[in-house]
Design goal:
Glutaredoxin; globular
Length: 160
């Protein structure tokens, strides 16, 4: 059964590796802040297509307090090659902490039973789920939720 709106953000332990930070650094950075967690995979074409849009959202809402965490969830044996993952992190400009979920412990904790990628979870500053979106239209759903969470960002744009 997938996570429901209002559910608490699951623990982030269980990753087999971390890039651009550690579990401890990530937990410290997200304390009391809204958090966007996005699951992706090296072998996912839609993930690569949507990454620039996620980068734009992180750049827009990061200064307002949004923290972003990437979770690489291998779908195939080839996805477990850490050198390939590192290269994909560079190629896709993933600057946030990135957990590697080779044992699918984070997938299970986030109740991503179907193993969807991309899938995006947005939590408020209290750590409660505000929205969850998967697939090629996930970023569009996310934009609407972020606009509600950060109305000042919309005002800043319209004031320009």
């Amino acid at each position: 059964m997938p996570m429901k709106i209002g559910d608490a953000m699951p623990a982030l332990d269980g990753a087999t590796a971390w890039f651009n930070g550690s579990l401890e650094e990530t937990l410290e950075a997200i304390k009391g802040k809204p958090v966007l967690v996005h699951f992706w995979a090296v072998s996912c074409g839609i993930c690569k297509e949507k990454m620039p849009q996620l980068r734009e959202l992180a750049a827009k809402y990061g200064p307002l307090g949004l923290e972003t965490i990437a979770v690489h969830m291998p779908r195939y044996e080839a996805d477990t090659d850490l050198e390939r993952v590192k290269q994909a992190i560079r190629d896709n400009n993933i600057n946030e902490a990135c957990a590697v979920d080779s044992l699918h412990k984070l997938k299970d904790a986030f109740q991503n039973e179907q193993g969807w990628v991309p899938v995006i979870y947005l939590f408020d500053a209290e750590g409660k789920l505000k929205t969850r979106a998967a697939g090629e239209f996930g970023v569009t759903v996310l934009k609407t939720a972020l606009e509600k969470m950060f109305p000042e960002a919309t005002m800043m744009v319209s004031a320009v």
